[in-house]
Amino acid sequence: xxxxxxxxxxxxxxxxxxxxxxxxxxxxxxxxxxxxxxxxxxxxxxxxxxxxxxxxxxxxxxxxxxxxxxxxxxxxxxxxxxxxxxxxxxxxxxxxxxxxxxxxx
Length: 105
Known about the structure:
The protein has helices at residues 21-26, 38-49, 60-66, 72-83, 85-97. It is mainly α. The chain has a domain at 35-97: Orthogonal Bundle (Helicase, Ruva Protein, domain 3). Helix 2 packs across helix 3 (60-66) and helix 2 (38-49) crosses helix 4. The protein is elongated. The protein starts with 20 loop residues before the first helix and ends in an 8-residue tail after the last helix.
């Protein structure tokens, strides 16, 4: 065990009003980080989509404008959710053309 070890706790929330008072007493230093501006949202999109297959002419600035009011976490979740749409479309298309084995019921 290290004699002079220090522990730092860093927490983040999108809903500070829902935090318990006991937690707030134990985390005395609090500061607000505002919502990302358009340029920052575009950068968040670029970082989130880095390494993913995207169209080469993707307009991150346009997407960032559409995401006004979104946090970085919101943008990340949006990208994750949108990634499943092509899979859903393929499955729906497959269901249209493949008869259900229980179609006699």
